[in-house]
Design a protein that fits this description.
single chain, alpha/beta, Rossmann fold, Glutamyl-tRNA Synthetase, domain 3, 2 domains, five-stranded parallel beta sheet, three-stranded antiparallel beta sheet, 15% strand, elongated, metal-binding, aminoacyl-trna synthetase, protein biosynthesis, Rossmann-like_a/b/a_fold
């Protein structure tokens, strides 16, 4: 048991929870309970154009209906922007962040000129055009100057992971051209500010981890433990998401929803109601992922 454990579920309020997002919520809750720790909810509404009015409160209602109640009041990223600007200012002063004038089209043209073909669904790797100055152009965004090569970390489920950030991503955005703070910066700042020790989230976010580790090092922040969970797939074989038509959770029977999420996590446990099912699931999770 680890009384210092602090975990979190951090949904984006782009709509209500669906089957895939319940898997991530349940896994993070189970991990916190299995370690005798605290479980927080953070509404990641930093990308304001994608947010749906009222979705944040609907998500909290859905979590409560499943018996997943945070141990502290939820926080909203949109109310924490001064923290992100402070972190960005620190990076700029340390020479680790710089302004960028490039549009997406500029980056694509620069990559073509270098003979670098972008693979389908792959990252648009930034070629470093503005690393040495804007050359009279107006700044659009701010980027982290990536100075390290390969980044390796241990995932509690996936095992050893690595990514060559300069080659696979390049200098990445910290503050966007529209003035909004990038997910990578916001999540690193928030995890540190909230004292998060363990991050449990969907496997689709695993490739963000190396960038977040680099930011943690640049800002001299602690690095949490990471566990990335299996994904629920849609009919097309891709991750179930709102973009590919994921339906909102049907919570007329919360126990059935929890059981389905549990099966995705490899927990085929039983209970007469949500409370007893969750208690049994905590024991099963502790047996598998306890430390």
């Amino acid at each position: 048991m680890s009384p210092a454990y602090r975990g979190r579920f951090a949904p984006s309020p782009t709509g209500p929870l669906h089957a895939g997002s319940l898997v991530a919520a349940l896994a993070s809750w189970l991990d916190a309970r299995a370690h005798g720790g605290r479980w927080l909810v953070r509404i990641e509404d930093v990308d304001k154009p994608r947010c749906v009015a009222g979705a944040d409160h609907e998500i909290l209602r859905q979590l409560a209906a499943c018996g997943l109640t945070p141990d502290e009041p939820p926080v909203w990223q949109s109310r924490r922007e001064p923290l992100y600007q402070e972190a960005l200012d620190r990076l700029v002063q340390a020479g680790r962040a710089y302004p960028c004038a490039c549009s997406r089209k500029d980056i694509e043209e620069a990559l073509r000129a270098l003979g670098r073909q972008r693979e389908r669904n792959a990252e648009l790797v930034y070629p470093g055009t503005c690393r040495d100055g804007l050359h009279g152009r107006a700044a659009r965004a701010w980027r982290l100057r990536v100075e390290e090569g390969g980044v390796t970390w241990a995932d509690r489920r996936l095992g050893t992971q690595s990514q060559d950030v300069p080659r696979e991503v390049g200098d990445f955005v910290l503050k966007r051209a529209d003035g909004l703070y990038a997910y990578q910066l916001a999540v690193v700042v928030d995890d540190a500010a909230q004292g998060i020790t363990h991050v449990v989230r969907g496997e689709d976010l695993a490739d963000n981890t190396a960038r977040q580790l680099l930011l943690q090092r640049a800002l001299e922040l602690p690095t949490p433990s990471y566990l990335h969970t299996p994904l629920v797939l849609g009919p097309n074989g891709e991750k179930l998401s709102k973009q590919n038509g994921a339906a909102a959770l049907d919570l007329r029977d919360p126990l059935a929803a929890l059981q389905a999420a549990g099966r995705t996590l490899g927990l085929d446990v039983h209970g007469s109601d949500s409370g007893s099912w969750l208690a049994t699931a905590v024991s099963a999770w502790a047996h598998r992922y306890g430390m």
